[in-house]
Design a protein that fits this description.
The chain is mostly helical. About 60% of the residues lie in helices and about 0% in strands.
Length: about 100
């Protein structure tokens, strides 16, 4: 019988818990950073990784205010455009994951 492969998100989570950064995990796994962020966002949404390990309180507040003003229906690009320039797509994706789980 064929050996069941570990879920890709689980692999990413284990590497993160070993202390690797998003960039390091992406390089190690030969995946792009956006994919790694989506994997980690899954665990942020489940409450297994605190969002503040990625997003500072001040950035979280700016993202929350932007979303309160424009909503999420226009997509990430609209949120990114309305946020201060230092906020990245990674910040937004991880913040939204935590907000959807009620943890933001």
């Amino acid at each position: 019988p064929k050996e069941k492969k570990e879920d890709t998100k689980v692999t990413t989570f284990k590497l993160y818990k070993q202390g690797m950064s998003v960039k390091q995990i992406a390089k190690e796994r030969d995946l792009n950073q956006q994919t790694i962020v989506r994997h980690l966002a899954h665990y942020v949404a489940k409450g297994m990784i605190p969002v503040d390990e990625f997003v500072s309180d001040s950035k979280a507040e700016a993202i929350r205010e932007t979303i309160d003003n424009i909503g999420t229906t226009k997509g990430l690009a609209a949120i990114k455009e309305a946020c201060p320039s230092e906020i990245t797509y990674q910040d937004i994706v991880l913040y939204i994951a935590s907000a959807e789980s009620g943890r933001a």
